[in-house]
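Hi R.,

Here's the chain you asked about this morning:
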Amino acid sequence: MIRLNSKPQTIIEAFESQVERHPDKTAIIFLGTEFSYAEIGEYVNRFASALFQMGVKEEEKLIIYIPNSPQWVIAWLGIQKIGGVAVPITPIYTSYDLQYIANDSGAETVICADTNYGYVKRAITGANLHRIIVTNVVDLLPWWKRTFGKAFDKVPSGKVSKDKQTHLFKKLIGHPGSLPPEIQLEKSRVIEILYTGGTTKFPKGVPITYDLFMESAEEQLNVSTPLFPKEENTILAGAPLFHILGQACELATLCFGGTLILQPKVNLDGMLETIQRFNAKTFVGVPALYRMILEHDRVDFYNLSSLQYCFCAGDVLPIEIGTRWYEKFKKKIYQGYGATETCGGVAMCPVDVDNPPRSMGRVVPSKKIKIVNPDTLEPVPLGEPGELIVSSDRMVTAYWNKPEETAASFVELEGRKWYRTGDIVSMDEKGHLYFVDRTVDTIKHKGYRVSASEIESVLQEHPAVVGACVVGVPDQEVGERIKAFVVLKEDIKGITGYDLIKWCRQKLASYKVPQYIEFRDMLPKSKVGKLLRREMRAEERKRQEKTE
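And here is the predicted structure, written out as tokens:
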């Protein structure tokens, strides 16, 4: 058992206390199969024992490179139990990304899906990876489900070599072993490094400590307690576990006695059927996922009445989606705002008040904020837009191995360290925060600061539009002209750029209306789904240089 010198509990202590309190309660539901707290607890012990026997040391970094699954949770908790440091990454990363993160973090072990095994083998040549632990996404399902899935080609798999550095996850947890010795841990000990893309070329590692994670997780799960107690929560995970949204708002429920429903990838019918079958109370997702559900042609086949708390973060929720969701399901979508660097929530919409449209909530108790002029860092008047900076007693104060990025993103004011979010927000007199734009994505047109996100949101509310990206095109007369790249729905025909400009004129101030519309089949996005406006801006600059 890992002991903490002082409260709050560590993650593994909190989880193991739930195992002791109700061993037979369902902890995880995965593709229709239920795993009890006792089962997951035993698997965690066996995995921790296997890591210890393999020679994994305290504070050693281990990459988790698998989709949402029980194995992901077991690996993450097992790493905590031996005092290691988890490095969760998206399973869609390539060997190039994996190699970079392995070298940057200093990881020596990678836990991967067999479908990613080829990427791992290629990355090893340029990284210090000594051990590969491989799993198939259905490894822990009953034999008949595995057989059925493979027989009907429903289970993706990859070839795995038989060599000394490769170990099978299923074999490692097949038998109990000697548990590692008790480890004394400080509450400020780093438990994981989460990599965030942000706006820089390379991902930046964000070190998360025990106390920061537990504080943020409890704070965010507490938001829904006016609706139901934390231990009675059943959460359908619509966000990936490698992301802070998936961790603080989904994974953390296992520290408080809730039930976590996982899917390896987004499958709308599977997701909706699972909500209905297992009476999920909480659903977590980004705006795009809520839109996908609303537009799913079989959504009316399912009963989603069990949902009591629908939470949205990761991007601005268009009013149109929130309105349609309420009209259809009679459920509100509650928004929140956070970042990897703040370990999730900075602001959350309370469930027991009437939150204004577009509000992303009120500041949570553990965080302090300032809204400042991004150039001078001087506070702006109440109601005026400015850059949001955030501080907390247990906050992240530096990126991993990135002194220049740290200096640019973390500042000291009034004797405290503050994280510069790079987001332009405003706050009303009642403390509600409103997202305005990213500082790097503000278009300067005729002396006005124009929000690219605001224009994109309006375009995406048009019934023919599925995606939009807005950038500023340099112009000597007005500073920048506004250009929108638009993706239309597949079955839409006859929509012109003039139609979309007319739509914008109905909803935006004249200086915010795009001057140009260009139709595209797709828009560039990062590997974690963020729109890459910088690529579109660079493309426009090159095009302009050729014409000059």
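One quick note: The first strand starts at residue 3 and ends at 4.

Cheers,
M.
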